[in-house]
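Lab manual, section 2.4: Encoding a predicted structure.

Procedure: take the sequence of the chain (258 residues), apply the prediction step described in section 2.3, and record the output as structure tokens. A sample record is shown.
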Amino acid sequence: MIATITQQARHWSRHAEGYENVFLDPYRPGVVNPLLERLEAVPTPGGKALIDLGCGTGPLLERVVGRFGTVHALDFAPAMIDRARQRLGERAEQVTFHIRAMHELDDLAGQFDVAVAINSLVMPDTRAIDRTLKAIRNCLKPDGLFLGIVPAIDAVHYSTLLLMDRALDEGKAPSIAEAEAARTAEHHLFDFAFGRFAYKGLEQKFWQPFEVEYRLKKAGFTELTLEKLLYPWDDDIAGGAAFADHPPSWDWSFTARP
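Recorded output:
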């Protein structure tokens, strides 16, 4: 498991420069992001400590530095931390950065009011996810709040359905419609049975909604809420604007208490 984490850290560092061009951006215009609304609702943030777990290139840090009293940021990919520092400029001095895996939080036990993990709970080995969730719970204060977003494998199924139906409505045979849908939705990159995605050395876990609840409860979290983060139909999603009259695609956003 350690070797896998180290290898993935190298791959994520390699993709740091073009990260926004490869993965869906939950901060872009048109996205309905319940996590940001929940974060805005945190009372008296100036007296609270927050940790951004898997901070990536730092888009969340721009929103919380100066608003929360204490801000920590963690990522296992050094190049991601470098990009985050560059993004913040002089404000980077207000952040304590950690280059380490997300489960390595023993020295931070009980220190945070809020922990945030946006598209970073994606370890392909679910043992690492379980270990990480327990570590996150332990780093929170007893009345702390855990906010997260995870990529949704069921949204890929949804896109596939729309793509296939469009081809069928055009009069194409089922076998051709299925082949076109699979190609456009990039099925060759996914292991749907276990919710895994692989792209140029990167390996990610995609989630079913019941998995989110199951693993959070297994780690000891309570007061769970699960909501869809909604993406606009555009060129970043298979099918694009052709499906603008259908309900949007999604990832899963959650909140939980230790």
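Check your result against the sample. The chain has one domain: 2-152+195-257.
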